[in-house]
Amino acid sequence: MxxxxxxxxxxxxxxxxxxxxxxxxxxxxxxxxxxIVPLSFSSGQFLxxxxxxxxxxxxxxxxxxxxxTGSLANSLIVGISATALATALGTVASLGLVRADFxxxxxxxxxxxxxxxxxxxxxxxxxxxxxxxxxxxxxxxxLIVAHTALAAPFVVVTVTATxxxxxxxxxxxxxxxxAGPSTTFFKVILPLIAPGVxxxxxxxxxxxxxxxVIVLFVAGPGQRTLPREMFSGIRENISPTxxxxxxxxxxxxxxxxxxxxxxxxxxxxxxxxx
Amino acid sequence: xxxxxxxxxxxxxxxxxxxQVKAFGLIAPLLGFLLISFVVPIASMMMRAVHxxxxxxxxxxxxxxxxxxxxxxxxxxxxxFAALAHDIKASHKDRTLSTAARxxxxxxRNGRSLVFSTARALPETAERWTDAVIAANxxxxxxxxxxxxxxxxxxxxxxxxxxxxxxxRTATGRIVVAPPDEALFLDVLKxxxxxxxxxxxxxxxxxxxxxxxxATLPPDRGNLLMILVLLPFWTSLLVRTAxxxxxxxxxxxxxxxxxxxxxIEKPMRLIYNQVGVYVAMTHILLPFMILPLYxxxxxxxxxxxxxxxxxxxxxxxxxxxxxxxxTLPGIGAGGILVFIMAIGYYITPALxxxxxxxxxxxxxxxxxxxxxxxxxxxxxxxxLLAATMILYAVYNRLVGAGGIKLG
Lengths: 274, 407
Known about the structure:
Chain A is mostly helical. In chain A, 79% of the residues lie in helices and 0% in strands.
């Protein structure tokens, strides 16, 4: 579609204003995030520009501090366990959701997606009241269960969307050639929907890895996660070590974003083949 | 014909039923997991908003006797006074008096000291407990004091829900507005909705042009610029909040830049107040407005606007009367999504807001952990959850069930 070559002056002004506003909004969205990256390489104590010199001391402090590395390890333990559980439960449930229509499906869908909708503080307080008498507060299993519940809907949404584009005749062909349900799943369905499952898993991991409200209520000192450590850091005194932690997390989100984009393209390609 | 058809029909129906059972079997593990680990905790939290056994667990006799108190303008009879005296002495001995004191303190001014002073002054035996209890503390001669005991006698109570809306009941059961120095939550609710609405409108004003630009650019350039929206979307909430603290603090980037430019002489207060809350919340929620707007705008064929133009409409008229109405579903979806998220926000206002800028989530957390009043925390939670659910139902209508799109 060729752009109209002749533009009236008012249209040109209109386009210029649109670009100007958009550039300002992009600046607003990105500038604060990008502003803290150079500060993490500062040799000075203060979070101000101009930075006195380049140094990696805050990264050294991050990786040498038991508190920061311990919290990173806790975040990984909780994030990976919750992701594994949520992905397994969510993928299987998605297969059921696209396979048949039955009464009450809307209600079931509502329950499955409800952790995405209920405000986090309510979820956190609910878990706190519920876990305390069971002895599950301040334990890893408690935190992992809570994060699995929170992350599972993201897997359901992503995988059902992928399955909507999946040609069920392939599964029928596999069954007619004598494959059992589990062979069909692992050899035919799973390889084809793998990109969707992987993006669901990434969403689940990001959800758990960035979550702090539930951690505030349910976790004990032994389960302090990276966001929890940052929360108290921001609240008490914001040190340059936080900017180092933030830079590491920004790097991680770039990796996540890139991985999702690759998976999206792969998924689109697979759909083209199917 | 029909004799042959029937078994086939039955077989088909059976096969269909089997399919449904198998499908449900696949959903069951996650459904069961979420029912037990998510729905039950939330439901039991909502129960706490109307279920009240705190007082009856430590004062069983008076809470059992007080329903016999019919004429609420007069005092209850001797049996109720005797039950109260017995309970106070028993719980004083068992060291559970503080539980009763705490529960009555929710409802009565200085309820704690009333309970403890009565316990200290109460004699071992008495001719008439009515006189002895009133002698121990004169406030027991006021039916309103008894009204508080009645309201706390459980097991079902509307007290916390009323309190969450700054309402209270008198001894006779009339609902009255709480005195101004105790009324707090309607202001908090109002503030929550005002902040939520303002953030939604700011996000719409900033997000609409950006979504329009992204949707109308050629796809390769549009996708490239989309990264500028997706990167902040994927960046940790705490990283973004930390970034705003660094940027807005007293000697932060904004203040230093403004001083360097000579626009101001002394640093402005940009954080730990409303400015900080609005800026940080807008920053965090803006992608949630841009993404639904973008996906709606992307599906609008450019031919309609062209048709309007060719029929003689001015560019502004074509845009406002032809284009904008087609984006209304996106405006509705993005607006409700941002509003729902804004009214539930806890972390960001807690970190960049001042004491007077806290939203309802803060008070739910506060009454759960700092000042233990779980009934009130649950009642405030019920109000927030009800608002969220109603808005979500509207959102579902607009977008269609399961219409939540990610990324």
